[in-house]
Hints:
This protein is an alpha+beta fold. 30% of the residues lie in helices and 40% in strands. The protein has 3 domains: 31-46 and 294-372, conserved putative lor/sdh protein from methanococcus maripaludis s2 fold (Beta Barrel); 48-57 and 215-292, Efflux pump adaptor protein, beta barrel domain (Elongation Factor Tu (Ef-tu), domain 3); 92-181. α2 packs antiparallel against α3. It has 3 helices and 23 strands. It is elongated, with a radius of gyration of 42 Å.
Amino acid sequence: MQRRHIVPLMLALAAGATACLFVTTSRAQQASLVRVDRVISEPLSQTVPVIGRLVARQAGVVAARINGPVEDFMVDVGDRVQHDQVIALLNTDSLEARRDLAAGQLAEKQAELSTIRAEAKLAGQELTRLEALKASAAFSQARFDDVQQNVAIAAAKVRQAQSAVTSAEAELRLYEINVFDAAVRAPYDGVVTQRMTETGAYVRIGDPVIYMIADGSLEIEADVPFERLSGLRPGLKVWAALDDGTRHQATVRAVVPSENPLTRTRAVRLAPLFGVTHKPLANAQSVTVEVPVSAPRQVLTVHKDAVIKRQNQSIVYVVVEDTAELRPVELGQALGARLEVKSGLVEGEMVVIRGNERLQPNTKVRIGGDSS
């Protein structure tokens, strides 16, 4: 009798365990994989657009440092050059001849110096011998005085010859510098935008050879109206939009203390942090700067990917423990990839930014990928 009851009981327990396992597995399978982002507080200020332009911190003429005819150009318009790269060559035939002549004159002065030093040494030796004879009857005071004078004259000649050698060395160095400067070099990394002369033309010291721009050091310059300057200060980060539609952050580097009396504007320089652009950057390229009209205020923001539009209402899914709760929100201004939250969320809450399109209220979720 007992055995007949045991078998059904075991079957019932097995069926119950299978059912529990099925429910648990189903619930695990129902948990949706999502990515989340944190609601944060950050500064926001109202802005007005101001048209500016990209300007190179280094741009201008590269001039000749010596006189001479242009022998050859090593670059052309549009070529990118590196610092100290040779961009043009001036003819150095006469300079090299003068350098060789100066080298010969230096060798001559050095030989004269060696001869005079030897004569001074000889005079010094004779003076030493006479000093050793002072106690003897053979000593002549007149002869001793003459030799002392000869030693002083020899020392003066050594100094004069040494000075001549120094002058000859300096002259040779000047000719060597001129020969070196006959190769016109790029003063910084950049791009050649114009050739200011041609092969065969004679240039003098200071004459322009090429014009180049350091396009790797572009800044933003914007003429900001006087009444809009109160919200700007060095170190402030603002947004700037290029004419290709891309937006980038820029940091105010300086507000130039010089006002245009006609427009009542002051130049503001900003250091941009360029990301991906759709077109190459260029000097004088147009850029729109979002200038704050007042000091920033702290606001709550949410990532734009967390917001879903349904029936003219903005909603987000907030993860509470392991459940995605639907929350209607009131939004304000945009801050790049984030949106101001006027109501509906609190700082620190985690909202779903990936996988939220398929969620239903109170859905179980699993957080995967990067979250902040």
